[in-house]
């Protein structure tokens, strides 16, 4: 019995995903944090690397971001790529001011100051937007 030679065949199946898989990393990731810092007479960004708030008129003063500040108490969703800075809220209390350390987010358009007392951003809840 003679055997006939046949060319080998390659059968290729097209991959069709049946589930959406995102590979964009942190691109659409958001932080969830509560705007909970006490209302005060000013919000200052930490800019000079010295511990505590140094007001205008002192050596290496911190930069004021808002003259008056009132917290909104809302939970915000902010992109992880947004700018967050360390700072202070000055809280007037019975004739003397107290200073509260905060993390500052300037809103989605950079024009509205929100502050949280949750200083460890690694513990903030995250989600995909």
Structure notes:
- By secondary structure, the chain is an all-beta fold.
- Helix content is 0%, strand content 36%.
- It is built from no helices and eight strands.
- It has strands at residues 29-34, 42-45, 63-66, 75-79, 84-93, 96-105, 114-116, 125-128.
- The strands form two sheets. A five-stranded antiparallel β-sheet has the order 3-2-5-6-7, with no helix packed on it.
- Strand 5 (84-93) and strand 6 (96-105) form a beta hairpin.
- It is rod-shaped and about 110 Å long.
What's the SSE blueprint?
Blueprint: E1 29-34, E2 42-45, E3 63-66, E4 75-79, E5 84-93, E6 96-105, E7 114-116, E8 125-128
Antiparallel strand pairs: 1-4, 1-8, 2-3, 2-5, 5-6, 6-7
Poorly predicted parts: none
What's the total count of β strands?
Answer: 8
Mean pLDDT: 81
Quickly give the structural class: mainly beta
Radius of gyration: 27 Å
SSE order, one letter for each helix or strand: EEEEEEEE
């Amino acid at each position: 019995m003679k055997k006939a030679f046949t060319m080998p065949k390659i059968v290729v199946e097209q991959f069709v995903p049946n589930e959406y898989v995102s590979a964009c990393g942190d691109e659409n990731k958001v932080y969830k944090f509560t705007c909970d810092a006490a209302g005060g007479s000013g919000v200052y960004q930490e800019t000079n690397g010295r511990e505590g708030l140094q007001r205008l008129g002192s050596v290496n003063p911190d930069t004021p971001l808002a003259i008056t500040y009132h917290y909104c108490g809302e939970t915000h969703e902010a992109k992880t790529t947004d700018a967050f800075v360390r700072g202070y809220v000055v809280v007037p209390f019975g004739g003397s001011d107290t200073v509260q350390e905060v993390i500052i987010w300037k809103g989605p358009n950079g024009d509205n100051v929100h502050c949280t007392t949750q200083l460890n951003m690694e513990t903030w809840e995250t989600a995909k937007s």
